[in-house]
């Protein structure tokens, strides 16, 4: 079906129920179905189309591949005063994140800074819901993970890195936090997939075809190599994510995750590194001053007409909470077929 132009409007509750029903029908435990559906609803609500309802298709494909355990229960381990790990036991990542978050926050409050290694998880989601959840607790959040080796290093043409997102959130005393969340590739792979689905060309700087030539054909890009954002800078950041959220935490790099998949077509399986920082431990009685300084910085950005990252999302959120979410007709039918 190609008529992505027709749309279906659903309330956030209707979307949550739809997602939950589909996941439970495919064998997900209620805990996984809830954790996944919460994030799928958040993605669609904030009009992050590559990481909203579209992801449900990948979740079901991953379950059908037999690689994921959709009922796995995460296990939490304290590794050091400021370090914990949550083993997803080959389930999806989101329940592992929810399981570890309270302990991560507790450690950050007592140590000033704490890190959580999520291990052996199937990962399909955007990271901003996680760093926003950390900021909602008054903490600074940072998260990153590898994916599959789809991205060529700057200067090369063969895939090595994942699309390796980095997300950051800074809590603000009033209103929404300062949040950014981006792939270290020129664009998330999910966006190229959506272009392929809709038969739309992509910008030439996003990817090479399998012969190493720049391409505007989304399918050729998916068969070839994606490019990093910002040339050598994105390339170095992508490598950092492989090291911090792969080698350092004892989990797979994107090349290893791709090999582990062995052509099954499941979501990438690897680890994730999540860091929480308590500003009060750094600033003590001067915490308000630190926040005031941050606000002056944000004012200097918005005061000249530039926007803060996530502002588009927060506006979309308000719209969706009021009017419901819009789902492309073809996507809606694909989901109903599940
Ligand atoms: P985008 O390039 O769409 O956006 C990146 C960030 O930049 C967002 O925070 C966005 O805010 C902000 N931004 C965009 N335009 C502007 C602007 N003009 N001024 C200021 N800020 C701006 O994201 P990507 O395609 O790189 O990634 C999309 C999603 O894919 C991410 O959420 C990421 O987590 C997810 N992803 C997940 C992976 C995984 O392995 N799980 C792998 C790769 C990506 P806003 O949203 O408000 O526009
Ligand atoms: O869009 O690049 C992506 C992606 C990879 C894993 C989940 N999303």
TrEMBL record:
UniProt cross-references to Gene3D superfamilies, sorted A to Z: 1.10.1530.10, Hypothetical oxidoreductase yiak, domain 2
Pfam families, alphabetized: Ldh_2
Keywords assigned: Oxidoreductase
Keyword Oxidoreductase tagged: yes
A molecular function GO annotation: oxidoreductase activity
SUPFAM superfamilies: L-sulfolactate dehydrogenase-like
InterPro entries, per database record: Mal/L-sulf/L-lact_DH-like_ah, Mal/L-sulf/L-lact_DH-like_NADP, Mal/L-sulfo/L-lacto_DH-like_sf, Malate/L-lactate_DH-like
Domain of life: Bacteria
Family recorded in the similarity comment: Belongs to the LDH2/MDH2 oxidoreductase family.
PANTHER family: MALATE DEHYDROGENASE, OXIDOREDUCTASE-RELATED
Identification of the protein by name: Malate/lactate/ureidoglycolate dehydrogenase, LDH2 family
């Amino acid at each position: 079906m190609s008529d992505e132009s027709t749309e279906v409007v659903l309330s956030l509750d209707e979307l949550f129920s739809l997602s939950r029903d589909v996941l439970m029908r495919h064998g997900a435990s209620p805990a996984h179905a809830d954790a996944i559906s919460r994030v799928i609803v958040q993605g669609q609500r904030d009009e992050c189309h590559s990481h909203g309802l579209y992801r449900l298709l990948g979740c079901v494909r991953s379950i059908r591949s037999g690689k994921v355990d959709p009922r796995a229960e995460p296990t939490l381990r304290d590794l050091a005063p400021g370090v914990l790990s949550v083993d997803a036991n080959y389930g999806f990542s989101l329940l592992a994140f929810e399981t570890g978050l309270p302990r991560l926050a507790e450690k950050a409050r007592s140590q000033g800074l704490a890190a959580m290694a999520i291990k052996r998880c199937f990962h399909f989601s955007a990271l901003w819901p996680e760093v926003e959840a950390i900021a909602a607790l008054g903490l600074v959040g940072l998260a990153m993970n590898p994916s599959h080796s789809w991205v060529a290093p700057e200067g090369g043409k063969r895939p090595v890195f994942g699309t390796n997102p980095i997300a950051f959130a800074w809590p603000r005393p009033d209103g929404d936090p300062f949040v950014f969340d981006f792939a270290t590739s020129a664009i998330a792979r999910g966006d190229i997939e959506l272009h392929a689905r809709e038969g739309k060309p992509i910008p030439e700087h996003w990817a090479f075809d399998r012969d190493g030539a720049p391409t505007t054909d989304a399918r050729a890009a998916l068969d070839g190599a994606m490019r990093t954002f910002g040339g050598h800078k994105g390339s170095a950041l992508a490598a950092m994510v492989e090291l911090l959220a792969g080698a350092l935490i004892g989990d797979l790099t994107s090349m290893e995750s791709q090999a582990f998949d062995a052509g099954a077509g499941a979501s990438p399986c690897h680890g994730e590194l999540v860091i929480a920082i308590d500003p009060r431990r750094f600033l003590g009685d001067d915490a308000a001053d630190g926040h005031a300084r941050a606000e002056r910085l944000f004012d200097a950005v918005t005061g000249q007409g530039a926007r803060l990252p996530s502002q588009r999302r927060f506006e979309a959120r308000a719209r969706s909470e009021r009017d419901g979410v819009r789902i492309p007709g073809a996507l809606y039918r694909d989901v109903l077929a599940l």
